[in-house]
Amino acid sequence: MLIRKLIGSIIQMLVAVWCFMPGKSLAQSTDTTINIPLGGNAWVKPDAQAKIIDDGLMNWVSANDTVSVYVRVESVGEFNVGLKLGVPDGESKIEIHFLNQVLSKTVSANNASGEVSFGKIRVSQTGYLKFEIIGITKTSLIFANISGLVLTGPALNKAAYVHDNHGNYFHWGRRGPSVHLVYNVPKQSIEWFYNEVTIPPGKDIIGSYFMADGFSGGYFGMQANSATERRLLFSVWSPYETNDSKSIPDNLKVELLKKGEAVHSGEFGGEGSGGQSYLVYPWVAGKTYCFLIRAQGDIAAETTIYTAYFKPKDATEWQLIASFKRPQSGSYLTGLHSFVENFDPVYGDKMREAFFANQWTVDIDGHWEAIYGARFSGDETAKINYRKDYGIKAGPGGFYLMNGGFFNNFTPLDLQFSANRLIVRTPPQIDFSKLP
Questions:
Q1: What is the 3 state secondary structure string of the chain?
Q2: Within 13 Å, how many C-alpha atoms sit on residue 272's CB side?
């Protein structure tokens, strides 16, 4: 027994001496290595010659094309940084920039993507880290093909990034997390839903869909489709579950009943299928717009007619977008919600924000009721912690939804929020009998 105690004491002493040796720490016993695939976690400028595809960075010809890679960490300390890359021929000098720290390496040609260590950096705070990969010189056509950024450091098993492409998550992860307001609506038989949306200046990023009036059968909101085109989009899902609109049986198709002037109509697929309408409309950031949706349920026929209207808040006349009849329905408005999403992965590194306010419902008896409460939720990209750049904050009479841009102060999902009830609300003045 005495010998065992003596051996135990010697082992403890040796461990203590090792931990306090220069360059040694207990943190090293928890070091982990992660490979961050560029296919799901990297961006270049939209007009760059270099491209991010599922395999990573390709066609890296120009030194002007900087590659940005993001990962969120929950620990601080010293991290070793490397790249999984291949230089087809010649040699390339490549730098990795992190804050004011620069790691440099000249890499010679190799036939396959191998891991190359660039050195160590010091991380002093938790949250999102941005690494910039920069090409300095090369003797061949391209700098390198890069598939991953490799980090070794303390507790990296808790890092947030897109781990792999299972379920096409390189696409969904680069699009970024979608976030929702699921409204608390105690009333039944809701015929009308009214909402106001304002996009703060600079947050109207290409690829954004700011969805104002969502319901169990469809959605209605505004999109930033390109640098020059913007749309108001209203869609209704078919009850037939498919991503191919052409496969929907005739008796389960969503029927267009009417549409407004200059409104395009057709079908959509890819994420469910159904009837779609949109109006090319030059909405602008900083201005408030009003969205109004109506549901007319026919229980006997098992159909519901959904009609969407729109106007700037300072306008007097409502514009008809479209009216669709949905089969296998027969109910009024349920599942009321709003959301912010990005549908273009190229712009998935940019922050979006929308202010949803002054929500009202009207039941079939004509009674108005303000909506004050909502649950904050997110899509699967948020739920599985591939992206954690999402949030919500209270505003005057409503809520700001935020996503993208790799900001640090995220809001946990599934929390309940309430708008300020001290702000007096009055229902919008709408003469329903005069709507187009």
A1: CHHHHHHHHHHHHHHHHHHCCCCCCHHHHHEEEEEEEHHHHEECCCCCCCEEECCEEECCCCCCCCEEEEEEECCCEEEEEEEEEECCCCEEEEEEEECCEEEEEEEECCCCCEEEEEEEEEECCCEEEEEEEEEEEECCCCCCEEEEEEEEEECHHHCECCCCCCCCHHHHHHHCCCEEEEECCCCCCEEEEEEEEECCCCCCCCCEEEEEEEECCEEEEEEECCCCCEEEEEEEECCCCCCCHHHCCHHHCCEEEEECCCCEEEEECCCCCEEEEEEECCCCCCCEEEEEEEEEEECCCCEEEEEEEEEECCCCCCEEEEEEEEECCCCCECCCEEEEEECCHHHCCCCEEEEEEEEEEEECCCCEEECCEEEEEECHHHHCCCCCCEEEEEECCEEEEEECCCCCCCCCCCCEEECCCCCCCCCCCCCHHHCC
A2: 15
**Intrachain domains 32-154 and 174-434 with the same fold:** yes
For the chain, which residues make up each domain, given as ranges? 32-154, 174-434
pLDDT tens digits, 233-243: 999 988 878 87
pLDDT tens, 322-354? 999 999 998 999 999 999 999 999 999 999 999
With beta carbons less than 8 A apart as the criterion, state whether 151 and 130 touch: no
pTM of the model: 0.89
- Greatest C-alpha distance within the chain: 97
Distance (Å, whole) CA 51 – CA 358: 42
Class of domain 32-154: mainly beta
Separation between Cα atoms, residue 281 and residue 223, nearest integer Å: 9
Query: Per the structure block, which two tokens stand in for 160?
Result: 């947030």
Per-residue pLDDT of 216-262, as tens digits, reads 999 999 999 999 999 999 999 888 788 777 788 888 889 999 999 99
Structure tokens at 18: 């090792």
> Which CATH architecture does the domain made up of 174-434 adopt?
Sandwich (2.60)
